[in-house]
Design a protein that fits this description.
The chain is an all-alpha fold. It is built from 8 helices and 2 strands. Strands 1-2 form a two-stranded antiparallel sheet.
């Protein structure tokens, strides 16, 4: 395993960022689909929760209001915590967030297996972990990304495609590369969402052990640079 302090060439750093982004998008899609199936709430797609919240307030569906507010609040708390950790001089390693998110998923799975957790608590814990995970990779090269915001990814994909078509030949190479970055990111999220119902059927209460294991394997095998996004 290559230590984190190893200096990476710019192109190699971009390739690592791309791999991490696709993996994290897969995990976000998988976890989001799991939350939607089990708790009827998105745990990483806050646009959906915001829409549900607005509609539920009008129709006075207090259960949906409660779960949406919990999801949004703890997702924001996760992003806040992850950002603070990334800016802290005490935590220079990006891998600490991998282990934190993985540990939360494992601890949740064990607790839920022996003592069934209420939906609100489940949404809070997993929503927080998704917010935390969202701060690991925020760019691939010069292209800003969000690993669990599909609307933003598709928006950037369409805009980048338009820039590719309308720009001069000399500028097209970078736009073309960014198009593939964004397309792979969207495919990663979609693949995770497709895998979730299948594995949920077999793993049941242990379904979140799968993404937790992916995060640990990733942290142990990929030479994650200490870049600041």
């Amino acid at each position: 395993m290559i230590p984190e302090t190893k200096i990476l060439f710019p192109d190699r750093t971009v390739r690592i960022q791309e791999k991490l982004a696709v993996l994290l998008a897969f995990i976000a899609g998988y976890t989001d689909a799991t939350g939607l199936i089990q708790w009827k709430t998105y745990v990483s797609f806050m646009s959906g929760n915001t829409t549900q919240l607005g509609a539920a307030v009008f129709s006075e569906k207090y259960g949906i209001i409660f779960s949406s507010v919990i999801a949004i609040s703890f997702f924001l708390a996760g992003i806040y915590t992850g950002t603070c950790l990334s800016l802290s001089k005490k935590f220079r390693s990006t891998k600490i967030i991998f282990y934190m998110v993985s540990g939360m998923m494992i601890l949740y799975s064990i607790t839920d297996y022996y003592e069934h957790m209420a939906n609100g608590m489940s949404v809070a814990v997993i929503g927080f972990s998704m917010g935390l995970m969202n701060t690991i990779v925020t760019s691939v090269g010069k292209q800003k990304i969000n690993t669990d915001f599909v609307t933003g990814t598709l928006n950037s994909l369409a805009k980048t495609a338009a820039l590719f078509v309308m720009s001069d030949h000399a500028e097209r190479k970078e736009y073309k590369v960014n198009i593939f970055h964004l397309l792979f990111l969207w495919i990663g999220f979609l693949s995770g969402a497709l895998a979730a119902p299948f594995l949920l059927f077999y793993l049941e209460n242990w379904t979140l052990i799968f993404p937790a294991a992916l995060l640990i394997i990733c942290a142990l095998t990929i030479p994650i640079p200490t870049f600041k996004n």
